[in-house]
Task: structure prediction
Amino acid sequence: MRSKKHHVFIISCILWLNAWLTTGTAGPVAPTSVQVIDDRQQVVSLAAPAERIISLAPHITELLFAVGAGDRIVGTVSFSDYPEAAADIPRIGSYKQLDMESILALQPDLVVAWSSGNVQTQVERLARLGLPLYYNDPQDFEQLALALERLGTLAGRARQGQETAADFRQALQMLQDRYGSRPKVTVFYQIWDRPLMTLNDQHLISRAIEICGGHNLFGDLEAMVPRLDREVVLAADPEAILAGGMGEDSPHWIDEWRRWPALTATARDNLFFIPPSLLQRATPRILEGTRLVCEALETARSRRPEASE
Result:
């Protein structure tokens, strides 16, 4: 009669053989399907993680690199300039004017579109041609973190996407804890010069201002990107003005406000240039832009008359 040890040995051999047949050299493992929800709350399903991705916006290109999927981008749009490796990716037009033939020739298995930036009719045409679409347009920081996780999953970089999102949430919470309860500073954020344009509270930048203890004076306007007369801003008399510019080294927009020395922001020298790529793109680098906003508003607090008494 065979011993119990012999039976245990046989069972162990069977289990080991089964594991070897399913995961070892017996043959390639079948691709695993992936499924996520995009920012339009639509289900995006792929039979396997995407290996050939088209990015239709500069910030989307940056998000894909952030989760380790930069090597899977086969085409992107103009101004996709970060990180440096993005410069080597073939261009398929601009975010406003796509080259359909170039996109189809690249044979993508996933197209990541910008809901509020791309021309909708062009993106819909890609969908009709059978290309899988993921719509990205984060309106708050949690949606940005979710985009990192979801794009990581779609590109077969789920773990890196999760880790990058966790680091992002942690760094954001640190800024919130440090500055969120500081005395409020009234803010005008200038996104464009002519026409003069700002952002309402639906936009991610307004959330950054809020985290830093600021109050967006035009946050309650209906349009996400309202146009304003300069007189309206002068009447609102912000304590601080934040502005980007035409480029990273072009802060001339902010200098225009020195023409009104009676304006509180001008009188106290609370005119701050924030490099646009650090705040106007929904990517992990917005943490650095938010930190600069927080430091600017803290400077504005230190320049209040009562602060010097």
Remarks:
- The chain has two domains: 34-166, 180-303.
- The chain is about 40% helix and 15% strand.
